[in-house]
C-alpha cells in the first residue's frame, strides 16, 4: 500500500502532482511519501505489540536525515552499519539507547564513536572485532554491550548478493563455534554479552527461512542459558520483502504473529531491523525521456536517470515497475529503458511493454525508496538527484540537487 496514484490521468504523490514537482525541481528526482513511510512503520511496529520489542530501522536502505527523523518521531530505533550512519542517526535526534551497530568491518574510530555515544549494542561478527571492542572500551573505561551475529546457515531464497545467512557468506559467526565465543566474551573485562543477533538476507518473500533461523537461534539460546549466560536481547535482523512486480511477500502482521506465538512467554526484548519493507514502496524516481532510438533489433527509450541514480536493475537484474506521469492512450510497444551512462549494463528495464512514449515526457520508476538514492554515485560525473519529501499537500526538498561545483569541490 502506498500513496502514489493516478487521478484523472495524472500521477499524484499524496496531494501533490508529480509533474509539477518534476517541472519545478528538474529530473532525475526522488519523491518520497511521508504518509507511506509512517503507515509502513506503524504497520510493522504494531505487528510486534504483543512482545517487548524495539524496531530499529535499517539506515542503509534510505539514509536521508529527514527520513530518519520521520521514523524517530514514531519511536523508531536505528540499525547502523558505519560511523557515517551513526552520525546521521544522531543528527536525526535518535536516542543513542535505541541504536544497534551491525557490520563485519567496524574500524577503531567507528567503535570509539559508538562507545562515546553509548549505543544500545554492537552486533559483533568476528573474534577479532570482539578483541578490538574490548581493547577500546577498556581504554575508555567503559563496558560494551554486545550480541554476536550468528550465521544460522539457512537459505533465504533471494538474490545471492543479498543472502547473508548461509555458511558461505562473510557474515556472522558459525553457529557451531559461537558457544566458545560467548564463553570468551563473558570473561573479557570490557564486554557485556547481552544478546544474540542474526540477519539472514534481504527481499525475503516467505517467513519460513526466518522461522527456520529462529528455531536454530532459540536452540542455541537454550545452551547459553545452561551456561548461566543471561541473554535478554534477541535481534532478528531485517529482510522482509516487498512487491516490486508480482512477488507476494507476507504482511508484517503475519510475520509478527508467527514470531509472537513463539516468543511471547520468553523473557526477551526482541529487536527488528526492517529497511526495505518500510521505505521501498514509499519512493519513486521521476525521470524524463531524452530521446527515442530505434536500432534494427531494439527500441530504446533513453531517459535522464541512470545506473548511478538507481543501480538495482544493473546490480541485481531487479524489476522496477515503470509508469506514466501523465496517462495517454497510445499503442504499447516493447522497449528497453536505458540511461545516458557509457555502460551496456546501464538500464532501468529491458524488453518492457510500455505505452508509446514521446520525447520530453516524464516517467515514474516505482519502488525506488529503498536502496535507490542510498546506493547512488557520481559515475560519469553526474550530479546526484534531488530528493523531495511530500507530506499531504506540502512538498519539501530534503536534499538539493548536486551542482557541477559540488562535483569538483573536494578536488582542490
Ligand atoms: C541490510 C540490513 C538490514 C535491512 O535489510 P532489509 O532487507 O532492507 O530489511 C537489516 N540488518 C542488517 C544487519 C542489514 O545488513
Question: Main traits of this protein?
Answer:
nine-stranded mixed sheet, Lyase, Ornithine Decarboxylase, Chain A, domain 1, 12 helices, 2 domains, TIM Barrel, alpha/beta, 28% helix
Q: Please give the CATH class of the largest domain.
A: Alpha Beta
Instruction: Indicate the CATH topology of the largest domain.
Output: TIM Barrel
- Percent of residues in beta strands: 25-35%
Write the CATH homologous superfamily of the largest domain.
Answer: Alanine racemase
The number of helices is 12
Q: Tally the beta strands.
A: 21
pLDDT averaged over residues: 96
Count structural domains.
Answer: 2
| Shape estimate | elongated
* Secondary structure category: alpha/beta
Spatial extent as radius of gyration: 23 Å
Structure description:
With 412 residues, this protein is α/β, with parallel strands linked by helices. It has 2 domains: 4-32 and 280-408, Lyase, Ornithine Decarboxylase, Chain A, domain 1 (Beta Barrel), CATH 2.40.37.10; 103-272, TIM Barrel. It has helices at 18-25, 34-46, 65-72, 83-91, 108-117, 127-140, 178-187, 208-226, 252-263, 276-279, 312-316, 404-408; strands at 4-7, 10-13, 16-17, 29-33, 53-58, 77-80, 99-101, 121-124, 144-151, 173-174, 191-197, 233-235, 269-272, 283-294, 299-303, 322-324, 332-338, 347-355, 362-365, 386-391, 394-399. Strands 4, 14, 15, 16, 17, 18, 19, 20 and 21 form a 9-stranded mixed β-sheet that branches. Strands 5-6-7-8-9-11-12-13 form an 8-stranded parallel β-barrel, surrounded by 4 helices. Strand 8, helix 6 (127-140) and strand 9 form a beta-alpha-beta unit. The protein is elongated. The N and C termini lie far apart (47 Å). The site of pyridoxal-5'-phosphate has 18 residues, from helix 10.
